[in-house]
Design brief:
The complex is a heterodimer of chains A (about 350) and B (about 575). Chain A has about 350 residues and is mainly alpha-helical. Chain A has 13 helices and two strands, in the order αααβαβααααααααα. Helix content of chain A is about 65%, strand content about 5%. In chain A, about 35% of the residues are buried. With about 575 residues, chain B is an alpha/beta fold. Chain B has a domain of about 260 residues: Rossmann fold (3-Layer(aba) Sandwich). Helices cover about 35% and strands about 25% of the residues of chain B. Chain B has 21 helices and 20 strands. In chain B, α8 links the parallel β7 and β8. The longest helix of chain B has 18 residues. Classes of the chains: A mainly alpha (about 350), B alpha/beta (about 575). At the A-B interface, α10 and α11 of A face α14, α15 and α16 of B.
Amino acid sequence: MSAAVAATAMRAPRATGHGVWSLAARRLRHDRIGMAALAVVGVFIVMIVLVSLHLLAANWADEPGVHYANPTFLGPGPDDLAMIEPPPGHMLDLTAVDPLAPHYADIERRARELETNIRPRIRTLPFGGDRYGRDVLKKAIKGAQVSIIVGLAAALVATFIGSVLGGFAGFFGGRVGDALEWLYNVFTSVPYILLVFAFAAVSGRGIGSVIVILGLTGWTGVYRLIRAEYIKHSNREYVRAAQAIGATPLSRMFVHILPNVSHVILVQLSLNVVSFIKAEVILSFLGLGVSVDSVSWGTMLNEAQSELILGKWWQLAAATFFMAVFVTAFSAFTDSLRDALDPKLR
Amino acid sequence: MTESAPKAPLLSVRDLAVEFQIAREAPRVAVRGISFEVPANRTVALVGESGSGKSVSAMAILRLLPDNARISGSIRFEGRELTTLPAAQLRDLRGSAMSVVFQEPMSSLNPVFTVGNQIAEVLRIHEHIGRRAAHARAVELLTEVGLPDPQLRVHSYPHELSGGQQQRVMIAMAIACKPQLLIADEPTTALDVTIQKQVLELLAQLRKSHQMSVLFISHDLGVVGEIADEVIVMQDGIVREQGAVEKIFTAPTHPYTRALLACRPDMERHPRRLPVVADFLAGKEPDLHDAVRVPRTDQEVVLEVTGLRKSFRLRDGLFHWREVPAVEDVSFTLRRGQTLGVAGESGSGKTTVGLTLMRLHQATAGRVLMHGEGGTVDLLSLSEAAMMPFRQRIQIVFQNPYASLNPRFTIGHILTEPMALHGIGANTGARLAMAAELLQRVGLPRDALNRYPHEFSGGQRQRIAIARCLTLRPDVLICDESVSALDVSVQAQVLNLLLDLQEEFGMAYIFISHDLAVVRYMADQVMVMNKGKAVEMADAETIYRQPRDPYTRKLLGSIPRGLAGRIVG
């Protein structure tokens, strides 16, 4: 008994060698919903990697299907050619007056000798086809690459900039705070689209530019929230106590206060991912986003507008489904992360 | 006044039980079937320590408990059964017929609205008066509760007011609609003694003039004795003793009541160790005889402060700044093993003195000379880097144990951080071993290292904060209101611990408190501060027997003294 107590006492202090973050990771591992969400996000990440390596959906731009091919589970739609009715009346035999009539057999024989690479258009595709007969499923998979990279990377950039600047402004206040507030005011005084245009004019087109544009323009909301949190926390006694034991300002900011405001940052991050995936659509629509020869969930949604009138809903469904699954999983994951970071909710 | 006996009480509580359902655990019982009555025109006090269920009982009356609370029993207010009253009708009662002053003024006030707005809101909801009239009433109410500069303060945000001032705003909000029943949940706990006296007098006077009843919840029997007509002593969700105030004070029958009466330091008795509740419950009658405290003047001087000044710059307009003095010309010397008590009310600058000594505030002028083996150094002249080794020698324990520990750190992390910063201990393992020893020294188990601050009670957290300071083996320990937030019995334990540690490590204390009885118990020398100035300084005995300064006399006269200090409303 006493040996067991001694053993616990010896073992107990060991675990505390870990910091805030590794303990949070351990708590996260016990959260089933969080781990499931992380698995879904992981599947998407793996998908993006495979797409980037041209192992998946590499031939998304092919046009194997007919114009607006039906999804397989709906069965083939009505055949356009079959719909042309034969003309009424008797068929006339024109052999006698047709000058080419003697050559038909020869033409057919020669035609058989020729090879052609025009494959017949498929009537149905796994999840339907778009206007050009491209496979919607492959488009959605390929589109995930652009959308998720843009959404995640831009959100990370924006949240990072906003958190760091907000932290400095809130923690130090005074001149630093004033200068950063001035920067914030300048940024928010310019209309958003104009600001985006200005950045786009400088940085050109492409995924990288979209990330930079969204990251550099989207930090303001996070900045304000984090600044407020830091103002609140920098006067708390635990921060004073850290100062009393000699912790440097940077250590107080990032070691002591950051874990206490991390929930705000995480929520902002997941909100930003969603809004930036949507913002990429707007940018693409304005001709400032990804180029016309690539695909994203945003461009798919854009195309879907006109298709819906024709009753072709599958492109919208595919893009929405992929986006919804990813966004839900990502939000659930950040929620779990937030809970894991809060020791009170163990 | 004729007290007609058969008249129905204003509030009648029968067999009230409250339990909380937390997640899927077994329900936690907070109140286990209590019954009491609040007659019209009377002040009834619910007394007990934290966790006794006194606040939960009071909140159950207004059904202001969280959704996971299950209330059983009966609560009748003017003949209406409150437990089954529809929410809309209850809402009409709340704030008008019954109002509450909450325990924590900081979280009870909305930080984003001015206090004037918040008072006006109550008036506009219940009395339907205009914006201008409500504002004028707010100023009146703030004047009534003794807030200085009410015309200006009405535009302040809660964080711009001190804790005491915030609580006064809360009281102003509660009395705004002239309720019949005022539920005051620890209303004066955060207030200065002189203000506490004023507020108690105000409550007594309001109770009389508005013909209302007060349900007064407090942990402090000294206060209760001054204001209550009837006292209900609660512990662990049950009523231990109930009766008229004279009976409770002169002939308490339950040992818990006797313990509560004894474990608070008072001005007359001065035992070596304060008795704690456990002693009484175990049936022991602790030694309450005075122990003569010999002031230690033979020890070497560790800290010498001369002409310390601190003023804050407040923004006043866009480019203009205003100097606000917080501390003016404070001087003292402190010897090893000696305790300097700094007494004063909120805003007196006593906390600023502590923070400035620690260089948590930049001093405006003065010298803080630290004597030691390496010679004498003026702490105020050092750069931040040069200050680092001296941070080890002077440490501080803050007031609020709930705020002074980082909620995201384990206790192990909290205790080893200062050691790591100052290079004490070879590695994390060695530091954790030292931390575990210190935890045991302050009376906590070793396995506390792996736990988080929220898992501990206020008293335990304050022990952890003390242990954090001890990791650095300081020569000077500043206790800034360190026991003010604790229950009396816990306070007694922490004070005993501080005395033991002082004896063991020879630390000098600067014991800052608004509580004169506690200062008297702890200190060898006492400095009384008022509005940034040290108005009087003498050894503890002298200052309490022959106070020279009128402010000191006023302060001493305001100490709650139970029945002896009875307020006649």
